[in-house]
Each structure stands twice: as C-alpha cells, then as structure tokens.
Amino acid sequence: VAIVPLPFTLITAMFVHGGLLHIGGNMLFLWIFGDNIEDRFGHVVFLFFYLLSGVAASLFHIMLEPGSTVPMVGASGAIAGVLGAYFLLFPKAQINTLVILPLYISMVRLPALFFLGFWFLLQVLNSGASSSGGVAWYAHIGGFVAGVAVALGYRALKPARNR
Predict the structure, then answer these.
(1) Please, is 21 exposed, middle or buried when counting C-beta atoms within 10 Å of its C-beta (0-12, 13-18, 19+)?
(2) Among 11, 94, 124, 156, whose Cα sits 20 to 30 Å from the Cα of 107?
(3) What is the CA radius of gyration of the chain?
(4) Using one digit for the tens of pLDDT, what is the confidence trace for 118-134?
(5) 127-160: string of b/e by CB count within 10 Å (b at 16+)?
(6) Measured CA angle at 47 (ends 41, 53), to 5 deg
(7) pLDDT at 17 over 90
(8) What is the pTM for the complete model shown?
C-alpha cells in the first residue's frame, strides 16, 4: 500500500535526496541562483515556478527513460529550472567559479551565460549515459528547458520597465 499516491511522488521526490553531497550541491546552486529569480518573480510565483520546473523535469525524464528502475529523488530538476530562468533573465551577471585544473586552482568570474551554457552542455553530453550512475540527466535538461520557457513567458508578459 502506497503512503503517497503515485502522481504526488512527482512533488514529494523533490524533497528526498541521495545523501549530504546531493542535497548540499542542490542547495548551493539554489542559494547562488534562486534568490535573483525569487526576487524577480515574487515569493508565491517562485514557489509555483519551482514546483512546476521539478514536475516538468520528472515528466521529461520519465518520457525519455520509461523503463528506468532507478528511483528519482532530489530537487535537481527544479533547480535546473531556476538555472534555465537565470540563463535567460540574467545572462550578463558574473558568477564566481572555482576552477580546478592540474597545477592550477583559482576563483574566476564568468558570465552566467557561459557558466550555465557549459553546465547545460554537460547535461546533454552526459545524457547519453542514460540513468546509469543514478543521475537523471534528462530531468536536468527538462527542468532547464522548462525554466527557460517560463522565463520567456515572464519576459513577454512583463514590460522591461517593470522588471
């Protein structure tokens, strides 16, 4: 007997994580990018946007990986939606980024457009690995695209002078 009806697991899964590193990484990205999107959308609209992004991410993953037996947990898809909105609404913002290369470790400032574009490219390239390793790459892609779509709608509905 299921404690939570199956359709509701699209939401509840966003609040379960696979460990401290998983939740820590998600919260780091939410902390860096989420406050600007929440300021832009407002608290209530941001909450609905966040949940919608997470559900869209899960549905995209389910659509492309219908036979997957790996449980989907985490807020990564919803946070990917936040990243997609940030990508569109704050492309010129600068992101402090830790770069680790052989014999080189440094903090550099990168344009959000580059940082998030590179992040999205990594998701697409890794999606060929399917859900192996327990990462729902398609959920990241679906969430990001949902975030871009919502941000496009937001820009169309809100004149620039009111943003």
Answers:
(1) exposed
(2) 124
(3) 16
(4) 999 999 999 876 555 67
(5) beebbeeebbbbbbbbbbbbbbbbbeebeeeeee
(6) 95
(7) no
(8) 0.89
Pair of tokens at residue 45: 């609209």
Residue 107's identity, in one-letter code, is M
| Cβ(79)–Cβ(57) below 8 Å | no
Is the distance from CB of 76 to CB of 143 less than 8 angstroms? yes
Q: Which amino acid is at 92?
A: K
Show the tokens assigned to 129.
């690995």
Which amino acid appears at position 144 of this protein?
F
Q: Which two tokens stand for residue 35?
A: 């406050």
Tokens 């939401």 belong to 11
